[in-house]
Amino acid sequence: MTEGHVWAIALAGGLVLPVSFFSLSLSSRYTHPSNVSLLMFLETVLGPIWIWAGTGIQPTPSMLAGGVIVIVSLAFSLWHTGRR
Question: What's the CA gap between 27 and 21, in Å, rounded?
Fold first, then answer.
């Protein structure tokens, strides 16, 4: 915090978190809560990608493979649920 990144922490705590949690609670009105919980896995998958884009720390191949597995299984689950 001594390096001048207080604004980023304030932005995340004051805007990003309330908006994201409000969106999550609102989304369960329009889709099944199980779909909402599955979509929350995207945070885990996309987190390393955002870090890579913001700081340049490259994810390992195993991290990328795990992310692909989660995204493909999530897409298949949502597609299969939508067909029923």
Answer: 10
Decide: 21 and 43 in contact? Cβ < 8 Å: no
Structure-block tokens of residue 27: 């989304």
Reading the block at residue 34, the tokens are 């199980």
DSSP code of 4? Answer: S
CA atoms of 39 and 61, how far apart (whole Å)? 23
Distance separating alpha carbons of residues 52 and 36, to the nearest angstrom: 25
pTM for the whole thing? 0.54
- Is residue 4 very low, low, confident or very high in pLDDT (cuts 50, 70, 90)? low
